[in-house]
Amino acid sequence: MDPLHSSVGFVIRHLGISKVRGTFREFATTLTVDGDDIAVTADVEVASLDTGNSDRDAHVLQPDLLDVAKRPTLSFRSTRVERDGDEGTLTGDLTIGDVTRSVTFDVEFGGLGDFPGAPGKHAGFEATGEIKRSDFGIDFGAGEAILGDKIKIQLDVQYTEPA
Question: What values do phi and psi take at 89, rounded to 5?
Answer without folding.
Answer: -130, 150
